Amino acid sequence: MPLDTSTYSLALLRVDGRRWNELRRLHAQIRTQAAADGSSYLEMGHTKVMCVVTGPSEPGPRRGGGIGGGAGGQSKDAEVVVNIVIAGFSSVDRKRRGRGDKRTQEMQSTVANALAASLHTHLFPHSQINVSLHVLSQDGSLLAALINAATLACVDAGIPMTDYVAACTAGSTSTYAANDESADPLLDLNHQEEQELPSLTVATLGDSDRVVVLVCESRVQISRLEGMLAVGVDGCKQVRELLDRVVREKGQRMILEGTVEKGTGLNDLD
Amino acid sequence: MPITIHPPKPPRPLISDNLPSDDSDSDSDTSIGGVDLGLPPKKRLTQFTSSPYTGIVTPGEIITPDPQWMRGHGTYIPPQTTDITSSLAGTITRTNKLISVRPLRARYTPEVGDLVVGRIVEVQAKRWRVDVGSTQLASLPLSAINLPGGILRKRTETDELQIRTFFAEGDLLVAEVQQLFQDGGAVLHTRSLKYGKLRNGAFVAVSGMGGGGGVVRSRRQAWTMEGANGAGQIDVCLGVNGYVWISKHVETPAELEGGGKTAAGITNMEENVSATMYSSQNDKVDTETMREIARLRGVITALVENGLRVDEEMLNRGYHEAVEMAMVDWNGPDDIYLGGERGEMLAAALTGK
């Protein structure tokens, strides 16, 4: 089903009514499962992802399936093992995806490497951090949602990290073939746009400009790439702010309820 | 009439937020220019911003750029800077010049002297590997347990061969952290009559240290309390790691002898370390005691579910409250159940709200 992208130039509004630099609604929760070490639930538009983190813990018997982000289990660093399950009902067409699905495996290793770049794995030698991601609903920007959910769950699990890894997607309003010089970059594509337009997923470390993940699977003119990347990096900063707010609200609530003792502000030092 | 499209509203935040962030949800046309490149990233300083979220730091947040402070747990210093930066979501604690961040929740980190409850997961040639809810399995060497037939007996090869007769996989035990390795691994010991294999009771795992309710380090982690409703005495052992053991109180041989001998010294310990110490057979536990053990277990889970700390004082108060609640509204055998509404009632009674 081709997308009628020609309407964009008329009103500068996208199919779902957003402007080029607007994110979809991002809603997230942390500590959704009490029994887990860390857990989160994240919605980016209609893409809905659940994440559970177990560990750092002693690595169990070696099994296939997980892709390691670090080296072996007996190494100096903790190993990040990511497992992604895509529910059969998550997309429009019910597709059966087995354990050995190559696309899923690639996403697993991408998320694992992204997390391993930020987590302070050297603090937990001979251990393993298990990240289990469940995709409940897909509407574009799946990899970005997975990375964001995994970051939140790791924050909830209390695993030290350099900064949040925040991800989002960016695209261009015109296809590669159209050869349209006045193409605008787009932020946070939904499924329909992702099908039709060139897009990339970018993840940055905190609100620095340090890119930890950059995935582009479509053909895009090199002149447009810079604009797309800039928009994507800017979107990541917005995403980081939203994720940060989720964590702070949870922490604040815990302090109000008296679950956690209030810390010392640095103002009342000396 | 012009059509306006409102972005969907995120759920109302609990705290009125006036974070110094650019509002990404705003639909205003002023932000159409969007990307600004070349600007240095904003530095977020807890010290100077008047954030409404006082006391909370999140990963990547700069705590202080002042080099006079020392960096503790939960913080790091990015290369080529002097900024102490948080690596966790949690609250700042300060010990003199040392700044550390206590996480909102994390796994148990062992410290020497901690009383822990653990479960054997692996038996090796000269030691056991014990799950204590930490990042790594703790180890319990054969030389660090009370061997039957004399506490000061030397460990022999026979003991090594019958290592499974002391502890086998799945056994629960209470022990003390004796030593820590550089990498955070712990070594346990059970060289006291207080420690050893656990029987005659129920196990509960709650979140340990690291905030979010759960067991806190306190003066007394194990004690005996009187059971209500005709039950016998009940032992409670709160492991610092968040593993809890509630069991029927069994008189130790020294106690049975009455107050005749003062304190089981090292001399008469010998006969106390009997073969029954490593028995996996439960004693007979009467129904009343079982019910009260179950009630205590319910109190603990209710405390945790409602985010209250678990310690001796809370547990005693909670237990009495639960017994009274069961007396007031008597609805059959369900009175032990302390989940859902009943748990909230209990927590409300305890916090005095």
TrEMBL record, chain A:
Report the SUPFAM superfamilies cross-referenced here.
Answer: Ribonuclease PH domain 2-like, Ribosomal protein S5 domain 2-like
Please give the biological process terms from Gene Ontology that the record holds. nuclear mRNA surveillance; poly(A)-dependent snoRNA 3'-end processing; rRNA catabolic process; U4 snRNA 3'-end processing
**Any transmembrane segments, and where?**
none
Span of domain Exoribonuclease phosphorolytic: 22-160, 163-233
What is one GO cellular-component annotation here? nuclear exosome (RNase complex)
Q: Read off the Pfam families from this record.
A: RNase_PH, RNase_PH_C
Top-level taxon of origin? Eukaryota
Name a GO molecular-function annotation: RNA binding
Signal peptide stretch: none
Question: What family is this protein classified in?
Answer: Belongs to the RNase PH family.
> By what name is this protein known?
3' exoribonuclease family, domain 1-domain-containing protein
The organism encoding this protein is Podospora fimiseda
From TrEMBL, chain B:
List, as start-end ranges, the regions of compositional bias called Pro residues: 1-13
What are the recorded GO MF terms, alphabetically?
RNA binding
UniProt organism field:
Podospora fimiseda
Give compartment(s). Answer: Nucleus
CDD domains assigned = S1_Rrp4
Q: Reply yes or no: does the keyword Membrane apply.
A: no
**A single GO cellular-component term on record:** cytoplasmic exosome (RNase complex)
What is the name of this protein?
Exosome complex component rrp4
Q: What is its main location?
A: nucleus
Region annotation (Disordered) ranges: 1-43
Thylakoid keyword on record: no
Q: Please, which domain of life does this record's source organism belong to?
A: Eukaryota
Concerning its family, UniProt says: Belongs to the RRP4 family.
Cite the RRP4 S1 domain residue spans from the record: 107-179
Q: Which UniProt keywords apply?
A: Exosome, Nucleus, RNA-binding, rRNA processing
